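Weekly modeling sync, notes
Attendees: AB, CL, MP (scribe)

Item 1: holo prediction request
CL wants a bound-state model with adenosine-5'-triphosphate before deciding which constructs to order. AB pointed out that an apo prediction alone won't tell us much about the pocket. Agreed to run with the ligand included and paste results into these notes for async review.

Input as submitted:
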Amino acid sequence: MKKIEAFIRHEALEAIHDQLVARGLPSMSVSEVKGSGRQAGFTEKYRGSRKAVFLRPKLKLEIAVDDADLERAIDCILELSHTGAPGDGKIFVFDIEEAIRVRTGERGPIVLESHTG
Ligand SMILES: Nc1ncnc2c1ncn2[C@@H]1O[C@H](COP(=O)(O)OP(=O)(O)OP(=O)(O)O)[C@@H](O)[C@H]1O
Ligand SMILES: [Mg+2]
């Protein structure tokens, strides 16, 4: 089991979510975050004076998937996040030790399967 943590632009979310649902991967968490990438801040007027703005708003997606689904989830995020401009985002992948569905006590990859019918 793997966890994808993807930093994306707000405008990419809907298409990514729709496409993941279509591919049988409907479960995700989304948070609003502020972040910086490798560029130095751009300047912006703030409270009357020019300041470097280092933190821009992004969305963070957290998606736990079975190993077998990892590459197609990544492909989907890559394809729909890419504009070619700086700030398109970044994807990190982590190993998951364990997954537990609270309602049933089930453990392991079965917890990550979506309903089939
Ligand atoms: N090393 C990192 N650690 C944690 N979060 C990161 C890291 N790199 C990027 N992020 C998150 O991803 C967001 C988007 O990063 P961004 O796409 O600007 O990366 P970049 O490396 O600067 O690439 P680019 O040159 O395409 O802009 C950041 O605002 C931040 O929230
Ligand atoms: Mg950047």
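Recorded for review: The longest helix spans residues 70-81.
Action items: CL to compare against the apo run; MP to circulate these notes.
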